[in-house]
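G., the chain you wanted modeled:
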Amino acid sequence: MSNTTKTPKTMGTSKTTERSSAQRINWRSTPTYVYLTVVALLVAGPVLFAFVGAFTPTGTIIGGGAPWFTAWTLENFSTAFRNSPLLAQFGNSVLVTLAQASLQLVTSLMAAYALVFGNLKRPNLVLAFFLVTMMIPSETTIIANYLTIRSIGLFDTLIAVFIPFATSAYAVFLFRQAFKSFPKEIHEAAVLDGVGPVAFLFRFLLPLNKPIVMTISLVSAIAAWNGYLWPLLITESPSSRTVQVGVAALSDSLSVDVGSVLAGLAFVSLPMLILVIFGQKFLTKGLTQGAVK
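Predicted structure as tokens:
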């Protein structure tokens, strides 16, 4: 009894030891927090610069002497919209993003379902063919895609912007990893009950894999929205181009008007920032889920 009872001196020593351990842990974590802070500033710095500069007069930005928050203005946005059809091109980007993300979702979903539940003889070999395409740089196939699009008469159209990216090997891989861990008992019970492949897909498989569906949708949408090189090559008229190409043209024609260029950048960045902020938990959960299975 006397051995298990702690005296005040022992309790004080224990608290001191706990505080020392906590301090050691905090000190050990300091380099991690410093590193994360530096990385966060490096990532967020250009974005903050674009958004603050979008509401600051160009003369103030170029002068650099006066604080930016002294004179807010919307003139930069008026100048950007007046010199480039950004609103129409914004609509083009929305259509391209929806079409490309939807196509990638459907095609990768079908491919992954066939790989896992299609009773293929060599599903891993088929998957290897998909994965090999991820090792090929997109720049090596861009000429072949360009010649193909021109030969079928789709040059300078919105369809040409997204149709070469109708499928994604990375999305197939993520779906396949998620479907591999699906309980076989549920699949076998559904088959015995006469549930067809389409009904099984939409009634059982997709509802139980919502995080990976959201992750692939977000990744595909972000990639489609940020596309620049291919839309620049395959479109010619301003009415057929996406907003990213339109902002670049704005920079070329108004190289001295930094404020309007930053206004265009802020206008283009805002949708993806909102999408990432609200979909961050799905991105983290879905990518982790696909990586460990």
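The chain has a mean pLDDT of 82.

Shout if anything looks off.
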